Amino acid sequence: xxxxxxxxxxxxxxxxxxxxxxxxxxxxxxxxxxxxxxxxxxxxxxxxxxxxxxxxxxxxxxxxxxxxxxxxxxxxxxxxxxxxxxxxxxxxxxxxxxxxxxxxxxxxxxxxxxxxxxxxxxxxxxxxxxxxxxxxxxxxxxxxxxxxxxxxxxxxxxxxxxxxxxxxxxxxxxxxxxxxxxxxxxxxxxxxxxxxxxxxxxxxxxxxxxxxxxxxxxxx
Length: 220
Hints:
This protein is an alpha+beta fold and 220 residues long. Helix content is 26%, strand content 16%. The strands form 3 sheets. A 5-stranded mixed beta sheet has the order 3-5-6-8-7. A two-stranded antiparallel ribbon has the order 1-9.
């Protein structure tokens, strides 16, 4: 196991606002090279580590650099091999899950958290931020009303520069990277009443290898 030595603070507070589906009209969650570059640049700016192996992921989790995603009344895990993410991403997921259940009456489903470089899919972008733990995937809701709710809120949070999100088709899911990994809270409150605010305590993270295997296409 490589030595782990860096002092980047990863803590962010996210306020989720319930918005109407009309808020997202005219804007989409389509993937693009610019979107991938934005996520990758955010990871580099925060000096985040790209974890290469399963052992690296588990070591980061044991050290507290990554936090476990846990099922609760608002959130369900589905086929998640590595249910770990950075602390700020976990707080975002918990906040979103709570607002989602209040907004459409069902639990949000997480399908992926941190994923080591050595287990990236063949079509993954070499700039994928899944190996850092800053990204999380949510299953596409089956209920039309829940799908509208999730799309609208993800677009709103993108506009606030809290996240960068992509709606993927195969398999159908939403890939979300939490852009703020610093000590200052990142707040979003738009077009509606505040549902929840989380202000987690700062947490130190340790460094692993920053190299990442290159791929052929540009899926985040």
